[in-house]
Amino acid sequence: MGLGSIRIRVVTNRDEILSLEHEEKAVHLAFRPSDRDLFSLVKTCPGIEILQLPASSYEGLSKFIKMFLTSSGIHLVKGDVSGHWHDLNNYFVIPSYVLEKIKELEVQGRTEKEIIEEITNLRKISPDMVLHLLHSSFLTSCPERPGMNNINRF
After folding, report:
1. Which InterPro entries has this protein been placed in (predicted)?
2. For 143, which DSSP code?
3. Which of 57, 74, 97, 127 is at a distance of 20 to 30 A from 65, taking alpha carbons?
4. Contact 84/92 with Cβ under 8 angstroms?
């Protein structure tokens, strides 16, 4: 069984947070969220595992909110969803071939730096996201594994 694609829900404004699906596991906020927005996101999507923010928004987060998100089991990732058109699709998709390539490079014994460089050249994915994927359960194809392997895959 091969690896599936990963869908990241792109949220362009705070008004969309309350209308998110309860099961969302990966979210990109394309606006600068307030603490209230982040609390609302965690309440609306209690199983969220990855929160991606543009670098400027990430740097603006307070230590408290970073600790809150981390203690809630949410991995913060810095980066953008380059080339995504929200008008056409609410999701930015990391295709299965990217996950397979990360796994292949890891098996070959490549360093994190080499893997990040090759993957960011292959597809416009932030270095932080590549690093997260490299160390996450996304690279296993075990169907019985909990979390994002089963929920947000095509």
Report:
1. DUF1699
2. T
3. 127
4. yes
Q: Confidence class of residue 4 from pLDDT cuts 50, 70 and 90?
A: confident
Q: CA 18, 14, 69, 147 torsion: positive or negative?
A: positive
Beta strands 75-78 and 50-53, pairing class: parallel
Long-range contacts of 92-97 (CB under 8 A, 24+ apart): 92/7, 92/8, 92/10, 92/28, 93/5, 93/6, 93/7, 93/8, 93/154, 94/5, 94/6, 94/8, 94/123, 94/125, 94/129, 94/133, 95/5, 95/123, 96/2, 96/3, 96/4, 96/5
Mean pLDDT of 70-78: 94
Ranges of each domain in the chain: 6-151
Backbone angles phi, psi at 104, to 5 degrees: -60, -45
Is residue 8 helix, strand or coil?
A: strand
